[in-house]
Write a sequence for this structure.
């Protein structure tokens, strides 16, 4: 199985699929091709949320603002999964969820056909190759060199030391839910009660439907983080936040 | 075969796919993940139009404004198809098209991992389970209880008794075609002629291209209903209607 | 393998998939369903860019502003590929890339179930049929008649004779890159230098990242054509162009 993720929109992912299918009969599964354009951190967040639900697979991931520069191409192996991606950290948080240890290999790239579409010319052929050789075996071939000096990526850590807890919005999903870096356990025992968000008192509820349509709430999303939401509405608009906005939580 | 439908946008459907693929080798086919957000009636309409074209399959459907409340999770069996969905009526009109009789089973849900993403935590595992046990056999297992008191859903019926026929717009498709609940037979014998829509005389044509680009027409869509359209334009804008708008048809 | 391309958005492509899967176990691969609405030339461009990356396949293509009129339905065979499409030229440029010679067959269409959705009622069944009978063999059946008088489609040719080279924007991709009909070789030996675009001096670079974020550049896209782009921005906005806009290139 090979999953595909990118910020390419359409129809560029189809060229990647064609290249992969030239080399393998693997089942292809689209994860998403509408990640926020060239936003490595947002893609890294979503991949960390989604890839752990898959059975062992090769994951082709291309969010690549540095395409054509000297940034490297890597395979990140974790558990029985391998992520083929640019070396910009996009694969690392997901890999840490997929396995206890993370191994990174640099892909020895021959002169690619284009400078602007390495998804098609570098990463798709590599993903098919890793799949055909096997996640356990591909590193026995000279195209893959162990690589220690890879780009890491971590999400900002919240400040939980004071009376006011300080975090930020990491991403906003398609529903408008603003997902913060504040761990859900902070509000888990206050469900049905209320908390202060940026000074305003807001209900803390297990479900969106616990408040009237259009009303704001704080909940714990499926990712386990505190989420600023609105029942049948957009939390980002209702709280006037966007990715990167600071969020203060108090009681 | 398992089809997937939701209003989740992206990338949440990928988590459902991962969960399903953990449990089955079934072929996955996306129906749509951009149904209007939390609009049960619109999703029910589109599923009724689309699912009958599929061979026997399990259909995973998640449009679920009541997620996390006490609304039940159901399997709706009709013909050789099974629809796994929340008990809000979204599956019922499609099921009535798929088979002569409709059987509904309540899914006995264990404590799910989240309160906000039952697509991943409840419906995806159930769809895989129904697929693996078989559409004819899953109800032999204790996780599925016959359920009579399910939520039904029907579309508003037009008033065809007077000189002026009164219906409404059910949904607007991506082209802007406004699909009404008025049966197509009403205009089928007036093709090439004209009808009155909300008092204005409008050509009634078999094809969009029968009128000049940008001009309005009434036609019979692929769903068999009267449709308000514009050649190479948006019918909803041209007729100033949206879902729920009343439509009066006369001669 | 059957690929699917259309301008249908969602959920209409699912009905095509259902019809295809009634008749074949072929692997289905979506190319794109968000081609610009009823824009035959744009779809023809993208198909020419993408389909050559696929292994031998049947390609179902429906961008069909003339649906329901007397435009014909065709199969275009080239190499070991077959494209099933309306006879409006949409398949021809891709077919010329897929094989040295192009053969066109008219599909003998029985009375279709609708006048507005031949993707479902004509092209999907034909694509499944061509797949099951085989790309080499389908034309032995009476439903397919050799057809010489098909609609051709070619892209406008640039004027490269003077000191100022004159082309136009063919399409704009989802990133906002404006893809012209000017061949990339014109600027290939000026990488790192600059060129004049509509009179303004603009850097010519191999990669987007070679200029500062938001700055304009000229590059050679993955399609081999001159592309007007902006690093981490939209080239169409930065150059104030859209499909059809004239582009003047000078040194």
């Amino acid at each position: 199985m090979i999953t595909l993720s990118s910020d390419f929109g359409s129809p560029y992912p189809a060229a990647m699929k064609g290249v992969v299918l030239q080399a393998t009969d693997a089942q292809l599964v689209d994860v998403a091709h509408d990640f926020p354009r060239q936003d490595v951190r947002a893609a890294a967040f979503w991949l960390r949320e989604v890839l752990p639900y898959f059975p062992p697979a090769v994951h082709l991931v291309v969010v690549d603002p540095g395409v054509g520069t000297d940034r490297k191409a890597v395979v990140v192996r974790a558990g029985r999964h391998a992520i083929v991606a640019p070396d910009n950290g996009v694969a690392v948080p997901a890999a840490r969820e997929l396995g206890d240890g993370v191994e990174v290999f640099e892909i020895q790239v021959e002169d690619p056909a284009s400078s602007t579409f390495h998804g098609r010319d570098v990463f798709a052929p590599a993903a098919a190759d890793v799949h055909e050789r096997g996640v356990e075996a591909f590193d026995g071939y000279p195209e893959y060199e162990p690589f220690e000096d890879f780009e890491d990526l971590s999400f900002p850590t919240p400040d939980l030391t004071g009376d006011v807890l300080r975090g930020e919005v990491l991403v906003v999903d398609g529903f408008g839910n603003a997902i913060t870096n504040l761990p859900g356990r902070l509000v888990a025992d206050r469900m049905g009660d209320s908390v202060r968000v940026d000074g305003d008192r807001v209900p803390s509820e297990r479900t969106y439907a616990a408040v009237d349509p259009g009303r704001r709430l704080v909940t714990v999303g499926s990712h386990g983080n505190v989420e600023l939401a609105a029942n049948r509405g957009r939390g980002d608009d209702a709280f006037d936040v966007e990715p990167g906005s600071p969020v203060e939580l108090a009681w």
Q: What stands out?
A: The mean pLDDT of chain B is 95.
